Amino acid sequence: MDRCSLVRTLVNRYCAGEEDWVDSRTVYVGHREPPPGAEAYIPQRYPDNRIVSAKYTFWNFIPKNLFEQFRRIANFYFLIIFLVQLIIDTPTSPVTSGLPLFFVITVTAIKQGYEDWLRHKADNAMNQCPVHFVQHGRLVRKQSRKLRVGDIVMVKEDETFPCDLIFLSSSRADGTCHVTTASLDGESSHKTHYAVQDTKGFHSEEDIDSLHATIECEQPQPDLYKFVGRINVYNDQNDPVVRSLGSENLLLRGATLKNTEKIFGVAIYTGMETKMALNYQSKSQKRSAVEKSMNVFLVVYLCILISKALINTTLKYVWQSEPSRDEPWYNRKTEAERQRNLFLRAFTDFLAFMVLFNYIIPVSMYVTVELQKFLGSYFLTWDEDMFDEEMGEGPLVNTSDLNEELGQVEYVFTDKTGTLTENNMEFKECCVEGHVCVPHAVCNGQVLPDASAIDMIDASPGASGREREELFFRALCLCHTIQVKDDDEVDGPQKSPDSGKRSAYISSSPDEVALVEGIQRFGFTYLRLKDNYMELLNRDNDIERFELLEILSFDSVRRRMSVIVKSATGEIYLFCKGADSSIFPRVTEGKVDQIQSRVERNAVEGLRTLCVAYKTLIPEEYEGIRELLQDAKVALQDRDKKLAEAYEQIETDLVLLGATAVEDRLQEKAADTIEALQKAGIKVWVLTGDKMETAAATCYACKLFRRNTQLLEVTTKRLEEQSLHDVLFELSKTVLRSSASLTRDNFSGLSADMQDYGLIIDGAALSLIMKPREDGSSSNYRELFLDICRNCSAVLCCRMAPLQKAQIVKLIKLSKEHPITLAIGDGANDVSMILEAHVGIGVIGKEGRQAARNSDYAIPKFKHLKKMLLVHGHFYYIRISELVQYFFYKNVCFIFPQFLYQFFCGFSQQTLYDTAYLTLYNISFTSLPILLYSLMEQHVAMDTLKRDPALYRDIAKNALLRWRAFIYWTLLGLFNALVFFFGAYFMFENTTVTSNGQVFGNWTFGTLVFTVMVLTVTLKLALDTHYWTWVNHFVIWGSLLFYIVFSLLWGGVIWPFLSYQRMYYVFIQMLSSGPAWLAIVLLVTVSLLPDVLKKVLCRQLWPSATERVQTSRFVSGLPLGSHPLATL
């Protein structure tokens, strides 16, 4: 028996040409062993059905989370500083760096732990949901996680499939079921799946439990649309019946059963091997330009820190080179200290100085930035102007890490269908044999006499023309994958041509529904698919039945689909429907010129066009086709390739019947949004799969192209006449000649003084540009292409595959200017470019939510992009750039006096400030004002930003975080630190400032410097605030009051938990001195004066557009900002 089994296996595989096909699995349906004589039974182990999306477990959370957090350079740096403080004798307590670090780590761990707890909760809900198993001829209810490969499962209507199943049988007589896959690929429309031919009659648990079959299929792989397998059904010990299995037989986990009472299926992929789980992809971590600048500034300050420590260490040993200074009488060294190695002592001192000055690196800045981004994102979701009443949806924030990037966008890449347009198809006209039929002016297929607006390319049809016309309408009724809802099915004779409800039809393509509904007006109504027969109602109200023999499915490469049907009279037809570019080359008869002329005219008007053709098959021809298709379908190796070759052979020698035109209307305010973006200096590119003429018409309608725009083409049609090299160089000369005569900024967008260029490129031409040349110099064409694009105000890329969309975005993103890119789309085919761009935005549209789920942000309509970028993006960037610069500034003010103090204390690492002040400066005294500023600041009113998009240019290219601005803030901090330290030093040097004749000690001196510093940095922020609310007042003045109250309590009370109190009575003594009050007022005024003068002079002499707006509003008495919550 084993030898026979081996022979059968070899014959099956080698005769089928599968000698290379080894990456497979065998599934035993219902865990039933194959009958004797079949293949040997080899039990295999597969994972259970548990889904695990959580990152941590209870046991590994702490070590794993700590490891991830300390991978951040700032956290790791502070950990090292903390350890140094613990190991060696340092001037400051380990608490001063350990407490802020602990606070940062704890807050981040709580946030990440909470997010992971939510993931665990979702996983448990999914893994514990009930599933109906078939065991021993009856239904058993178990938890989903207990499902195993080979189990037979029953799924009811509106339930989601618990794992990947092979569809065995259905409650529907025709063995079909309807499925929605919105949670997988974003497509919300219904798809039809088909049960295995030999098992679709098993409708009860007993029947399905008696099934004896094995399934051979490929190992798990993530492609949702590809599946290759075969099922061997054993009947009465005979040789098994072998049937091919494809994606139409596979029901995916996460999809939902619709319009079908129940189905039975066998589990083939479970748990983390399901296609849904394999498509879990952690999005690549996107980092904003602000974060990158922040990290660069951090490195600069780290270098400054190391330099300070080196300088102080060197000067210490230079100063101590004199014996009297090395061992003063009050601090004699021990014998052990004298014998220590010099280099070891120097290194220890270097580390001590590093610890002393480490506060120049602001660890709390990271927490403040994260809080600002997280809380700031709520202003976007709360915006009532961006809420769509019709959909009941508002904007979604999937990641708050890129808020400020919305204010830095230079390129917008947008999809067309469903993004710029509504994806709401309306049938406009059809052209049959050169005769144009418009539904509103047509009755029973004849043009009405008063329809003067109807364009007649050819004369009205004669008798043979009428036959062709009816054949055209039958082709549209039959060549589709539409299903009719059971609830809306109506008995044939009672259903009039206009009685069909829009909701009756279910299809994965809105175009198909529009066509089938449109031809109802011409007297032909599609009724149903029943028992493999398609039924339609003709003009005479008679039902016609066609047997559905084969479906040649649509795919994006062929861009067409076909059906083979058999009429009641025995005639066999192949009807083919597809894009003009894929139909015309296969046509041998028909009025091609007239129809092609009409198709081109409709495309120019922005209509979506399809062509319809047919051919008649004799029975012998069909038998050959059937065998050809069957061989391709059963193949396990290269099945898609073999099917494509078979389709190519079959869809030839067609007779052209006509063409259709469907309109996809432009979205509300799409043109206004694009115009505003261009005025803001943002270049808009449209990337679409549509034909060039249709897409160009849409671009004119939405004002991407204007009437004076000179269009430049790099298309397949042009490349047939000229080489790519010649085309690119010719276009380059054209645009560069124009740019040479008029100076143009690459980023400046539209200009009224110069020729406006628009570029059109198609997918085939792009492939040639991206393809490496034979000499390996592929970059030449790319650079030339980019030079042309830079000088064009708008670019249209048509006939684009999803991957090509991502390639375009990547090409621009990695160009030498490194511009910030934004991609926006609504369908699953836009996900690749959304993930590739710096900022990805999904439109919550009719093509499902795949784009919205994979995006960084989601909005209901394209028009909301205007406010998102020009208002929210502008505010986000202004706020966080001030936050970053201010944090570095206040830390320079904080630590530079400590550096200066070392020159007056013999480089002994003595601290200028008390430990409490060191610890709380960044955590308490100065943290809340800048956080509130970064959440609520409005330097210009919202309505002004919307009305004047050009203000967006003031912050372009990271303007507020450039080196010039960074150096200004740093120098301002250094100046303030010099004023704090030397002002206090010279004012109180050898001076009696108290009533009893005492002089200030070092702690009083340090407290005075610290008090001046806290007042100065807080008032500096108050001067920068343009928009005041009671919250700002409360936080700014409240933080100053908190500092004073804390200092009074810290130095005015004897705290039992402290072993010593060096600050006892210090603050109170300082405030009791009149000269100290004078010094505080004077030093704060002197510190703030340069910044005030700089602001006044710059506004008068070199005002920016934003400052001019601020001045005009101030002069007119209007507030600079509006309440952030009142406008949302």
Describe the structure.
- The protein is an alpha+beta fold and 1128 residues long.
- It folds into 5 domains: 51-131, no CATH class; 147-280, Calcium-transporting ATPase, cytoplasmic transduction domain A; 371-378 and 871-1110, no CATH class; 396-420 and 667-736 and 756-859, Rossmann fold, CATH 3.40.50.1000; 425-442 and 463-486 and 503-665, Calcium-transporting ATPase, cytoplasmic domain N, CATH 3.40.1110.10.
- The protein contains 37 helices and 36 strands.
- The strands form 7 sheets. Strands 16, 17, 22, 23, 24, 25, 26, 27, 28 and 29 form a 10-stranded mixed beta sheet that branches.
- Its main location: membrane.
- Its cofactor is Mg(2+).
Cα-atom Rg, whole angstroms?
37 Å
Structural domain tally: 5
Number of strands: 36
Number of helix segments? 37
The end-to-end distance, rounded to whole angstroms, is 77 Å
Average residue pLDDT: 79
Shape: elongated
Structural class determined from secondary elements: alpha+beta
Uncertain runs: 1-22, 441-459, 487-503, 742-753, 1122-1128
Instruction: State the major sheet.
Output: 10 strands, mixed
Cofactor: Mg(2+)
InterPro entries: ATPase_P-typ_cyto_dom_N, ATPase_P-typ_P_site, ATPase_P-typ_TM_dom_sf, ATPase_P-typ_transduc_dom_A_sf, ATPase_P-type_domA, HAD-like_sf, HAD_sf, P-type_ATPase_IV
Binding site for Mg(2+): 415, 417, 826, 830
Organism: Bos taurus (Bovine)
